[in-house]
Specification:
heterodimer; A: about 375 residues; alpha+beta; Butyryl-Coa Dehydrogenase, subunit A, domain 1; Butyryl-CoA Dehydrogenase, subunit A, domain 2; Butyryl-CoA Dehydrogenase, subunit A, domain 3; 3 domains; 4-stranded mixed beta sheet; 11 helices; 10 strands; globular; B: about 400 residues; 4-stranded antiparallel beta sheet; about 15% strand; binds flavin-adenine dinucleotide
Chain lengths: ~375, ~400
């Protein structure tokens, strides 16, 4: 067992740290967040030029063949800086699906553009009734001579307002929650029949709801075998969850750092508030949660790219559960220990708190993953 | 022992219900229930309706235009109001400065200010906290120096709730810089339109403008605006805080929020079933409901003990802690129940008359924001840590 980073991993981490430090002050983030795009195009392109968006892709497909660990190192820095670019959606999730399901020509056509950040992709798998269940799909895809027609509505598509292509799950057969009968389609948001209602999110990102009305999809924009993609969706969501845990980790570290600094500097009753034992213990609780979350983020990173198995699914559910609980607890405690200042827009902490809590509304909350884990519980 | 309301109390409750049914404007109730923005005019409309009924000043003696209600009656009224979605009265005038004026003010001050509170002419805000004086309020630095018939006030207050609407502020200011901490403080009433006052908004993490900074630059305040004796303001401050704390358990508000949660959890689906039928989620709703049941009983016990006059003692600190924890727990579940739709931050949907179809449902836009906004409950009115210090000192004598 060895928890040390290789020299290359160390370099990658340094690069990410430097990029975020130089490009992502809170003021800059605020500007990006309020811009039409909702993130920084320049930063996104920089990630592409430096190869960071290529890291997770196989070498054969123009990537660097990075593992979950490399992804973790980058994501933690993005989390620390509260970066707004939809790296998880585009590179990890959508990119992962094209890598896993795409035929050689699809991979050749799309992956280099995703890996170079020339394109931004995202995924649209939630629906109003689905509540994190990837199999709960009501959007329908009908086949005809020339391809497919999609009709339905997709909920809360993060990055969808700017995406060049959106991966949409749609039902080709069966009933609403059947495991079989789900297909995966690449949609051009400019296509006829696509409408988007865009909005900011509570944590400063942007997204949209997607309204599809008889949207035509050509056969070469179908990923994998229509009706048979659920396992791939789940597998790649697992990778996205691992990446997201790492992002949360960076943000939690920053929230803890800010709080610890504050305990040492804020004076009340003639002493730094960190002198009050009750607050010391609370800070210890936060630190303990952080340790637990760190361990699970590492565990998730190490199994994210393993072949699919019950063991892998269970570990990723556990990671998401532990990290979600830790994130909420740290967010709430950090605000509390700051007092009123922790509730202001002007100060970074509130933005970390919002990000940490809102991450649990993507890819399943703690209840969702508690149930997933319970279902897979090893009772032998 | 009889845990039921008396026949008179029940009759009173019926009277309250009839009044609310008749006089609470529906649009205001809808806004409260759905968590939409309330305007200053909305607050004033509801204030007026209560005043006309003679029920606005529930804490005041009859002689001053109050109701003279018992603690239990006040509780019934607050709870019934909350359950039907009446906005909580902005406390700074009617529940904070008024009791202080009634106890410590001159006849002139009472005659001038109390009617203006009753008829809504004055909107008060609270100038206690400063950047360096939060929990340690007595370390405040804003000071007032006597100059003939005036005090000259310099300094800064902060976190001033709804100060942007206020025309009056009550402040704790230092009048003796030599005296130790609590002793050199005075309680001053200041006209917000005085030259030298400036108000700057503070935007909170939920994007709202609820609190402000208030700056005082050589502000002249007539000496007759001093309440109580000079350098004895701390007595007023402490008296006021006991009032501030009693309402903070928010039983009625929590009940209303819990109803809302159940309603939403019946509409929201997961795996084709109502969220409320999901055993894991349902258990969490049940848990918070049981906690609320216990806290309501504790509130009633505390009120009964204080029935024969006065305000509850340190027990109200326990109620504040539990009550705010419960409200925060409900806000957490409310955010969870809508899943991914907690994410969108659609400003327009916070207005009741937004012309657009809601993105998801008429209740969804505000839930995550409220969860973040309600973090304040465990911070203000004496943080929950400070409440625990009070309990350990006053009740446990540790
Ligand atoms: C939304 C909102 C509205 C407000 N409205 C008003 C208003 O209208 N008027 C007004 O005057 N003020 C208002 N306040 C201010 C409020 O009263 C203060 O926030 C509160 O007194 C805490 O002070 P602080 O924020 O400076 O935190 P601090 O006192 O700096 O406390 C920071 C942390 O240290 C803890 N702590 C401090 N001392 C101790 C101790 N001895 N033992 C253990 N723990 C301790 C606190 O509990 C907290 O967790 C408002 C605050 C908020 C958030």
């Amino acid at each position: 067992m060895n928890f040390n980073l290789t020299e290359e991993q160390q370099m990658l981490q340094d690069t990410a740290t430097r990029l975020v430090r130089d490009g992502y002050s809170l003021e800059a983030r605020e500007q990006h967040s309020r811009s039409e795009e909702g993130f920084s195009r320049a930063f996104w392109q920089q990630l592409g030029e430096l190869g960071l968006t290529a890291v997770p892709f196989p070498e054969a497909l123009g990537g660097f063949g990075g593992s979950g660990v490399e992804t973790m190192l980058m994501m933690a820095e993005f989390g620390r800086g509260l970066c707004l670019e939809p790296y998880v959606q585009s590179v990890i999730y959508a990119g992962g699906l094209i890598t896993q399901l795409g035929n050689p020509s699809q991979q050749r056509d799309w992956l280099p553009r995703v890996a170079s950040a020339q394109w931004l992709l995202t995924v649209a798998f939630e629906e109003a009734q689905s509540h994190y269940h990837l199999n709960d799909v009501q959007t329908r895809a009908e086949r005809d001579a020339e391809g497919w027609t999609l009709t339905g509505r997709k909920a809360v598509v993060i990055g969808g307002h700017q995406a060049d292509l959106i991966l949409v799950s749609a039902r080709v057969s069966g009933e609403s929650r059947d495991e079989h009968g789900i297909g995966l389609f690449l949609i051009d948001p400019q296509a006829v029949g696509v409408e988007r209602r865009s909005y900011q999110t509570v944590d400063g990102h942007k997204g949209c709801d997607l309204y599809l009305s008889k949207v035509r999809v050509a056969n070469d924009h179908v990923l994998g075998e229509p009706g048979q993609v659920l396992a791939a969706l789940r597998y790649q969501q697992g990778r996205a969850i691992a990446a997201q845990c790492a992002e949360a980790l960076g943000s939690m570290e920053e929230a803890c750092r800010l709080t610890l600094d504050y305990l040492k500097t804020r004076q009340q009753f003639g002493m730094p508030i960190g002198q009050f034992q009750v607050l010391q213990h609370r800070m210890v609780d936060m630190r303990t949660e952080l340790e637990q979350a760190t361990s699970m983020a590492i565990l998730a990173a190490c199994c994210a790219d393993q072949v699919d198995s019950t063991e892998r699914s269970r570990t990723l559910a556990a990671a998401k559960f532990i990290v979600t609980r830790a994130a909420r607890s740290i967010a709430e405690q950090a605000i509390q220990l700051h007092g009123a200042i922790g509730m202001t827009w002007e100060y970074a902490l509130g933005h970390h708190a919002k990000r940490l809590v809102m991450l649990s509304h993507q890819f399943g909350d703690d209840d969702h993953h508690l149930k997933a884990y319970s279902t897979l519980l090893d009772v032998a | 022992m009889d845990i039921h309301f008396t026949a008179e109390e029940l009759a009173f409750r019926d009277e309250v219900r009839a009044f609310l049914k008749d006089k609470l404007p529906q649009d205001i109730a809808d806004k409260v229930r759905l968590g939409k923005h309330l305007s200053k005019a909305d607050h004033q409309r509801w204030q007026k309706a209560q005043s006309e009924q003679g029920w606005y000043a529930t804490h005041w003696p009859v002689a001053f235009g109050g109701t003279g209600w018992s603690a239990v009656q006040k509780h019934i009224y607050e709870e019934e109001c909350a359950v039907v979605g009446a906005p909580r009265s902005i406390p700074f005038g009617v529940s904070m400065v008024a009791p202080v004026l009634i106890k410590f003010g001159t006849a002139q001050q009472q005659d001038h200010y109390l009617p203006r509170i009753l008829n809504g002419e004055d909107w008060w805000c609270q100038g206690y906290s400063e950047p360096g004086a939060g929990s340690d309020l007595a370390s405040l630095k804003t000071h007032a120096v006597r100059d003939g018939d005036h005090y000259i006030v310099n300094g800064q207050k902060t976190w001033t709730t709804l100060g942007q609407h206020a025309n009056m502020i009550f402040c704790l200011v230092r009048t003796d810089s030599q005296a130790q901490k609590q002793r050199g403080i005075s309680f001053l009433l200041i006209d917000m339109n005085s030259p030298g006052i400036s108000v700057r908004p503070i935007i909170t993490l939920d994007g709202e403008h609820e609190v402000n900074e208030v700056f005082f630059d050589n502000v002249r305040v007539p000496v007759e605006n001093l309440v109580g004796e000079e350098n004895h303001g701390w007595t007023c401050a402490k008296y006021l805080l006991t009032y501030e704390r009693t309402g903070l358990a928010g039983i009625g508000v929590s009940k209303a929020a819990l109803d809302h949660l159940k309603r939403i959890a019946r509409l929201q689906l997961s795996e084709g079933k109502a969220m409320l039928d999901d055993p894991l989620f349902r258990a969490q709703v049940a848990e918070v409901e049981m906690q609320l049941m216990a806290t309501e009983m504790s509130t009633l016990r505390t009120l009964a003990a204080a029935k024969d006059g006065g305000v509850p003692g340190a027990e109200s600190s326990i109620l504040k802690i539990k009550g705010t924890e419960i409200r925060q727990a409900i806000s957490h579940l409310l955010r969870k129940v809508i899943g991914p739709y907690a994410l969108p931050f659609v400003e327009e949907e916070l207005d009741l008359d937004s012309p657009d179809e809601p993105l998801h449902a008429d209740y969804s836009a505000t839930l995550a924001r409220q969860y973040f906004n309600l973090r304040k409950l465990s911070i203000f009115g004496g943080s929950n840590e400070i409440q625990k210090n009070i309990v350990s000192k006053m009740i446990l004598e540790l």
